[in-house]
Amino acid sequence: MKVLVTGGLGFIGSHTVVELQNKGFEVVIIDDCSNSDENVLDGIKAITGKKPLYEKLDLKEKHKVENFFQRYQDVAGVIHFAASKAVGESVEKPLLYYENNIGTLVYILKELCKKNKASFIFSSSCTVYGQADKMPITEDAPVKVAESPYGNTKQMGEEIIADTCKVTPSLNAIALRYFNPMGAHPSGEIGELPIGVPQNLVPFITQTGIGLRDQLSVFGDDYPTPDGTCIRDYIYVVDLAKAHVVALERLMNEKNESNFEVFNVGTGTGSSVLEAIKSFEKVSGRKLNYKIVDRRPGDITSAYADTTKANKVLGWKAEYTLEEAMNYAWIWEQKIRD
Ligand code: WQD
After folding, report:
1. Tens digits of per-residue pLDDT, 35-87?
2. Total domain count, the chain
3. Phi-psi region of 285 (alpha: psi -120 to 50; beta: other; left: phi over 0)
């Protein structure tokens, strides 16, 4: 019995492959390497001793998806990470996002519906909440009008899965709504590999810390928060990866209460941009060069998870703090710049 991990060479995907292998699953990865590198396979092997099966394949090619599932009849579960995820780029190129994020999801679901039983874990995002009215955010917070085509693909993705599960009792799915993933594996063998100028805060911090970037721009300190900078729920990528394994096991062991469930995956703690910077300065012993600039369009003030459902129903809880995760992000940054 195999587990397919699409986008398994990516940041969250690779860490999830490691945790799947640690729990004894046989993994096959599909990745088109548009935002990742085949060398990540060696990093995974260095950690677990097992090199996962891998197929370089563009999931937008429907016949190739069909052919894959014909060749791998024993795939019992899929964890679907493969998607484009840059908010800004999605505004510039909406059709690229709808084709890549929605088209590929439909092709995979069609294949899973042919099976007698299938488990499906969907990579969703707290982006679906937009600026939630109440903190911390619970799963029944209203899904607001998406602020970007990227966020819309996550909302639409959940709806497509829900509609499919309604008429396909053999398909059991869980959507995991990630908050802000960060960090790198403790081994230093895998981590985040942003291409070009990082969009996200943490890699920009570590690249500034190591001198690759001159200065971090803090997008606004006039928000209605204690220190004026935006608040997010920064979750360690290994904690996040483990949530995927727990979710998959829930479905495979038929512990799910319905055939489509949604869980927030965060630490439950909100941290501001300035607090993230302070955690970097503490773990690195370096002063970070940053300046306050104008707000970034589309940013929300605050988002952090109510983790009650994940803790009580899913049986998962984040174990690492922002500081511990930042430490691993920093160790990784130093290693890849060696
Ligand atoms: C975090 C905070 C910025 C960079 C995005 C996506 C979300 C998910 C995670 C994919 C914000 C501030 C950032 C910088 C800064 N992606 N910041 N200077 O926007 O919360 O979430 O990434 O699933 O869907 O929306 O993450 O890391 O970009 O920003 O001040 O150079 O850091 O304003 O307050 P975000 P982020």
Report:
1. 999 999 999 999 999 999 999 999 999 999 999 999 999 999 999 999 999 88
2. 1
3. left
pTM value surpassing 0.90: yes
Catalytic residue among 150, 223, 234, 320: 150
- Between CA 322 and CA 334 the distance in angstroms is 18
Q: Which domain holds residue 158?
A: 2-179+235-265
Q: Quick check: is 58 in a domain?
A: yes
Assess whether the C-beta atom of 250 lies below 6 angstroms from ligand 1. no
Separation of CA 135 and ligand 1 centre (Å): 18
CATH of the domain at 161: 3.40.50.720
Rounded to a whole number of angstroms, the distance between the first and last alpha carbons of the chain is: 39
Question: What pLDDT does 195 receive?
Answer: 87
Question: Atom of ligand 1 at shortest distance to CA of 276?
Answer: 32
Six token digits for residue 152: 């819309």
Each residue's pLDDT tens digit, 236-246: 999 999 999 99
67 falls within a domain: yes
Residue 150 known to be catalytic: yes
